[in-house]
Amino acid sequence: MDSNTNLIILILLIPLIATFGIYAFSSKPNLRESISLAAGVSVLILAWSIFEKIKANQLVEWHLIEVLPGISIHFKVDELGALFSLIAGFLWIITTLYAIGYMRGHHEKNQTRFYICFSIAISAVLGVAYSGNLFTLFVFYEVLTLSTYPLVTHAGTEKAKHGGRVYLGILLFTSIFLFLPAIIITFLTADTLTFTPGGVFNKDASSILLSCLLILFIFGIGKAAIMPIHRWLPAAMVAPTPVSALLHAVAVVKAGVFSIIKVCVFIFGADALSGLITTQFLIYLTGTTILLSSLIAMRQDNLKKRLAYSTISQLSYVILGALLITSTSVTGSTLHILMHAFGKITLFFCAGAILVASHKSEISEMRGLGWKMPVTMTAFFIASLSIIGLPPVGGTWSKWYLLMATVETEQLILMSTLMISSLLNIYYLLPIPIKAFLPAKSTSQTNGYKSRFEIKEAPVASLIAIVVTTLCCLLLFVFPQPFVEMAQRIL
After folding, report:
1. For residue range 84-110, what is the model confidence (pLDDT) as tens digits?
2. β-strands 445-446, 449-450 pairing
3. Cα separation of 143 and 427, whole Å?
4. Which of 137, 264, 273, 354 is the Cys-Cys partner for 322 at CB 3.0 to 4.6 Å?
């Protein structure tokens, strides 16, 4: 094995090895969490090394085992996977740091189980990122589903168990009955599952078969949460905030839209995809998802639910770019994975900080909160600008590329959809920090009774995580070029 192969082996094994250390020091929280942070730092260093090697056009590949003739566990890193793993590695560290403050401040039980499942989930994400074929991607995609189920049901309440059943039921159903058949049909039709630039299908492949196959893939990759395969995402909001951050920014939904980009670009290819009769239908469905989920978000008073429906909308931005499949649109989709990751994780970090510090989860209760939690609410404001796509934050660039892609492809209805969606983003996000900095109706009463504690900022560890991700939202506006250049090489 060469050194590049060893990099893949190490980066996949480190999170798994960390689980043993986390378990061994379950009774010593400081050591337990130090192991998780150390593993995160190690993964980030390796992910950055792999990113640099792909940038330099080096081959980073590992054939693990051939399961059946033509079907193997095979890892091969491309530009999209290198960027995705870099996001996951960095945000693992930040989410762990945030979780230390949140889990202790909220006196959560089963913290060791949380960190163990989190580590396994990160290993699964890296497996998805580096997958060289559809079979490998499917295996790690399913490991990700199973490893995050205990996190969704972490609280152990009936509500949490119900949310977990919805989460697991929808994701397993779509995988087994839609995604897996699509993979089998692809293998029988193309005689390969390897991700190939330009696609794997011959020019004489049936357009009707490929059209049906595309529908199976888009709905089968349930983690992308396109309507109507989206109910699992709001249901999973019963989980603790660090889990919500994992679901929305680090792992689950990003694995979904990442998989869709891989399928569109490396299984279908631009020529095949643009000629299918179902492509335009799915493009309009993503537009519908963008608008409807934004409208639903506007009606949610619970902060985490509003953010959940916002995520559903933003994921369809990525799917839209993948289906338009031009250089500009794929660049926009890839950048949106990055920009949305930092913007949305900041918003969820802020939501959790508000819950820990003030015990408030409803937006209608947050008036005046900004004066007691200025750092948190300022961070919420900056991250909101990134989700909306306004300067001076990173989300500006991804939305700009996606908007330009609709102009290039003459999809004027979709161009209008993206513009209307950004206006709706303003309507359901910006009033939250603005209201927080308005004078409180009462400084001594909370829901009719005297407050028993003084509201202040979240624990220091959580606050550091919030500040770091907020600064990243700003830095990605000023220094987007390395990521833009990598994204432009994908198609």
Report:
1. 999 999 999 999 999 898 888 767 788
2. antiparallel
3. 37
4. 264
